[in-house]
Write a structure and sequence with these properties.
This protein has 256 residues and is α/β, with parallel strands linked by helices. 29% of the residues lie in helices and 29% in strands. It has 6 helices and 10 strands; from the N terminus they run βαβββαβββαβαβαβα. The chain has helices spanning 28-35, 71-83, 134-147, 171-176, 186-195, 231-254, and strands spanning 21-25, 39-47, 50-57, 60-66, 88-97, 107-116, 130-131, 151-159, 181-183, 199-209. It has a 5-stranded mixed β-barrel. It is globular.
Length: 256
């Protein structure tokens, strides 16, 4: 572990020297699962929801780090990883399907995100877009294809509130526009990365449907209701972790 004097204040990661490429996830437990796939994995910090490992994936040095639930806290991780040397961040998360035909366990590779995240509106005007780096999208897509994994591309909806409240939601309009899925942090990553000269992408494993009309147990293309603790989701997360790590390897190879 890094000494307190040599660590950044929020995540307690070392101030310098982290590998340039990272996979970021929400759950600290998932960070440990992804880190178990690495060679020479080492936990370098664990403070609050921020659990950070380093290791090697097929010759590429990487960071695996957790950011917890919600965009405001996630931005703090992105900021401190960047300060410590990370230049490429791929988010591996879970999401609820919005577009018909997306199954549980499928991967959604996000070209862009709707900025309903609750934090970036306080950082930059609302008109500024949240978009992935094209090379990150292409690397994730190639890795998914190489793995033979079911995947979809599209725009996702990043929303700060997990549960609906008393205000009307634009869900029907987003569904009509072809939005693929809903999650909670990706637009913040995209805005942070593009405004700081970083490379970012996102791959989301579907853990249920966001709308009841998508749930049809007799339809093999349907998703079930929200339940992230099923085998089909765990298998999708394991597949997605390997895809995200392989995308980092592809991005590293493209730089040489």
């Amino acid at each position: 572990m890094t000494s307190l004097t040599d660590a950044l204040p929020i995540t307690r990661v070392p101030r310098t020297g982290l590998p340039a490429r990272a996979v970021v996830v929400g759950d600290p437990g998932r960070a440990a699962v992804v880190a178990d796939l690495l060679s020479d994995a080492k936990e370098v910090s664990y403070h609050r929801e921020y659990r950070v490992f380093t290791g090697t994936w097929q010759g590429t040095e990487v960071v695996v780090a957790s950011h917890g639930v919600g965009a405001p806290g996630a931005v703090l991780l992105f900021q401190e990883l960047a300060e410590a040397g990370v230049r490429t961040l791929l988010r591996l998360g879970t999401a609820g399907a919005i577009r018909p035909g997306i199954r549980d366990g499928d991967l959604v590779i996000a070209d862009a995100a709707v900025r309903d995240d609750g934090v970036t509106q306080q950082l930059i005007p609302a008109e500024y877009p949240a978009f992935a780096a094209p090379e990150a999208v292409i690397a994730l897509q190639r890795a998914a294809r190489d793995a033979g994994a079911p995947y979809h591309r599209g725009v996702v909806w990043t929303r700060a509130a997990f549960q609906p409240g008393f205000l009307p939601l634009p869900g029907e309009a987003y569904a009509a526009a072809g939005i693929a899925a809903i999650e909670m942090e990706l637009s913040a990553l995209y805005v942070f990365a593009s405004t700081h000269g970083l490379t970012a992408g996102g791959a989301l494993v579907v853990d249920g449907a966001n709308a009841d009309e998508l749930v049809d147990e007799d339809d093999p293309l349907s998703t079930g209701g929200y339940d992230p603790h099923r085998d089909v989701v765990a298998q999708g997360v394991d597949r997605g972790a390997r895809i995200a790590l392989d995308a980092l390897r592809l991005l590293a190879a493209a730089e040489h």
